[in-house]
Amino acid sequence: MKDLFFRELRPEEIPYDLLHLADPCREAVKDYLSRGSCTGGFADGVLVGQYVLLPTRPFTVELVNVAVREPWQHQGIGRKIVAHAVASAQKRGFKTVEVGTAAVAVTHVAFYQKCGFTIIHVDFDFFIRHYPELMYADGLRLRDMIRMKRDLE
Question: Of all residues in the chain, what percent carry a pLDDT higher than 90?
């Protein structure tokens, strides 16, 4: 597992190609970037992954758009990114971190559970309501979003 250095990215450094790995909808990415902060994870000076923290309500932040560049996937970098996001949220005074992922992406659901998140809700037809184009994961059409949370206290 590589050592990572994290820092908040300036607007001109935003890795849209990487953001679109996790969310292909340009309008959605633009919207949450305007309201959140994007942090990059660097290995040997190269941006290998990123996440966005989006405050949603008092003491709660949503972890959106966690992505790792393909050559660095399956090396524990995603776990380090989530751990950094959780620690950053706690440092900023948030008490809960929430995350949403496609219900059909069972590997993603399991990943977040291994990172300490628990399922709290299913947002039925989320991807149909919010995304104009059909999206697929593991060969299945995205419809529902699994909402998860991790309490920080």
Answer: 82
DSSP output for the chain: ----EEEEPPGGG--HHHHHHH---HHHHHHHHHHSEEEEEEETTEEEEEEEEEEEETTEEEEEEEEE-GGGTTSSHHHHHHHHHHHHHHHTT-SEEEEEEETT-HHHHHHHHHTT-EEEEEETTHHHHH-SS--EETTEE---EEEEEEE--
**Per-residue pLDDT averaged across 52-80, rounded?**
95
Q: Evaluate if residue 115 carries a pLDDT over 90.
A: yes
Give me the pLDDT at residue 1, please: 52
